[in-house]
User: Fold this.
Amino acid sequence: MPVVTFDYEDFISLLGKDISKEKILEKIPMIGADIDRVEKNELSIEFFPDRPDLASVEGIARASSAFFGFQTGLKRYDIKKSDVELTVDPSVKKVRPYVVTALVKNVTMTDELIKSLMDLQEKLHMGLGRNRKKIAIGVHNFEPIEPPFTYRAVDPNSVQFVPLNKVESMTMTEILKNHEKGVDYAHILQDFDKHPLIVDKYNNVLSYPPIINGSLTEVTPFTTELFIDVTGTDEKAINYALNIVVTALAERGGQIYSTVVKDESKIYITPDLTPKEMSLSVDYANRILGTHLNTKEMESCLAKMGYNTKKVNDKKINILVPAWRADILHEIDIVEDIAKGYGYENFESDFPTSLTFGRTLENHKLHEALRNIMIGLGFNEVTTFTISNEDDEYKKIGLSEKTRVKIENPIGEEFSCLRSGLIPSLLKILNENRHHPLPQQIFELGIVIDKKFKNKYNLAFAKIDAKANFTECKSLAEAVIRDIGLDFKIRNFDHPGFIEGRCAAIIKDSREIGFFGELHPKTISNFELEYPIIALELKADKN
Assistant:
């Protein structure tokens, strides 16, 4: 989850009210956060990833102002018109089709603003932007460039410019190969012959999204006018990102100016801070929360969370949702904010109305036996995430099967599917510990998704050592299976992640229940490891 670090005095100046540090630390977690650490005047707060508007100290101050009762209701920002226009060329439609822009003037680039803006940009890239694949934000010094701007796709060998943090001119292809950011994000554009570019009236390069800005528009401590572009593949996401950035700048005294985006026959005025209208059933909210709040009380709770409301009747409330609240998708999201505004401490606790008796789960004894066996063999138990990604689960170990269960709205590319095996998770742990002495031997008893899309328990172990080999792996596998009392057979098994001829299947009653062997050098290098690895994976459910 994103951690926002800020100075207490800077927060107080943004809040505009004097409130003790202790009171802040007591109240802010009630919005939906955890205190990460406190060092003198430096506060680090971990916010839930569903609130990208709280990824900066400016957003936190705005939310706190309403929550603490200083300025309740929907915050309004003054937007003036500018003559800045950007034209979207049809050539970019198949690459990165959407773009929105804004201009912010009267900016004072203090150290606090520079740090906060950079942190906000990166957090939005990682969360809302799915590591720049979904959205990418460019922040530019407006003074050296001349509108109108053009957003188009070009041959990456046909254009060269000086990228940010460099002094020599480079083609776009050279940037992807030699610039730090180009190397990091080249994969986003690898399937396209043409790449997106934003240029000004005189073809000066502002941005090569989602890779890098041009050095011409580098922001300095003396910059007073900022031009912001947000490009991406999701129209809603780029608008939310732009709204979050410009309102953060406005919290520090910046003046927002609208711009015009011309996209063929469509014309957009951005940023658009028009609140979204939603309605809420009072009975529904009370049923979910177990409360008996009336419309006036609910409106008060919502005002503390930054909403404007209007009572329709005793059963229904109309709500204006801030344009920077990307997390509000459904009526239940409003109900959650009512709970926060009401105060979790005000909910009454109660004893259970019925008494039940628990019993040991069916597979508990088997699982405990497997844990004791592995510990007896000298392995250390680890627990890893059941959420993984296609690269780790399939590509890195050479599997070509399709992902069994994808996550529709992942928080990032690293967590995009549910795992179907444990060995990749163990290899990631070994990767994290590759600088520690060998041998290392770990195991996990955890949940995976089977071919019928059911949760099943598997046991897996992995050992990395200069002398690890198939013979040792076979000995360990036989020890595990023998000690749980199974009758089994071993036969040759082909697995693309293992060395051919050094992998075997475990057969019980003519059914394959697991496999083990020596990992292929390519698999080892895919996980950035260097020494031989042996591994086993075994079904750990009785049925």
